[in-house]
Amino acid sequence: MEALNGTDLPVIDLSLFPSQNVDQNQLESFEFKKLRQACQELGFFLVINHGVDPTLIQAVDGRIRDMFALPTEVKNRAIFPIFNTGYGPSVVDDAAKDSIPENMSFPWDHLLPNSVEKISAKLWPQGNPPFCEELNAYGAQIKELCQRILKLLVWSLGVDVSSQSVSELFEKSFGNVRMNYYDKCTDKEMISKAHTDVSFFTILYQDDIGGLQIRNKQGKWMDSKPLPGSFVFNVGDILQMWSNGRYRNAEHRVVYGKSNRNRLSMAYFFDLPNEFEIRCPKETIDEEHPQLYKVVTKDVVLIYEHRNVI
User: What pTM did the predictor assign?
Assistant: First the structure.
């Protein structure tokens, strides 16, 4: 399917939003309307003035590239029998479609406690303390950004931030970062497997090479332009369900290869435990928006994907 070229994603400037309570006038402001529209129509937007240290971002970028430059036999030592943890070799089918890039996953506060240190110890004899320090600092700043964006999303839906169900979102959420390394190719174009994210939402760092494509409501693949200094936000499966279908989890993929540089992205999945009960807040249900989903736990979503509709 041919892609639409050069699409600019909506840009959300976090400096223009309140950090404390909001009133109805603020919820009807241009910025909140823009946020809602981006989540409803495309499910993707760019985040600027996000507060994550740009020097730290570039330092982590360099550390991760050095990590992927290690010999294959060294990286293979970081393969763990735990889902979404440690090293994953690239997988490419014969048609160069539905490929999986080389990757490394670090689950913070979940699955493997102290995962950065444990994975680092598999790769370097001394564990590489500078790598661990910078990567943990990056994870902490991204988690803080996620908490800030979560509050804006809750407000944007007219949901009471102080309610017990929302408090549980803040208390029980955790992060899992996946570093993706797309090998340059000179002979053919590669396409990663199209998917949606089984998470609440995702914060993505990507370099300036580009290649991210998003499927719009009309079924067309859209090329998205990288914006220096920004993060990409996308709605996950859980947020689509929690918002009662008001916010859209768009299918996406990466087209890469035929470049003189390798592409790097770092996806931080803001997620919830498998036993977490996903229930639409009452504020998201009305005559125009009847309840779309059964109340289920996260593990049911993992197994049955989107077939748990009412």
Answer: 0.92
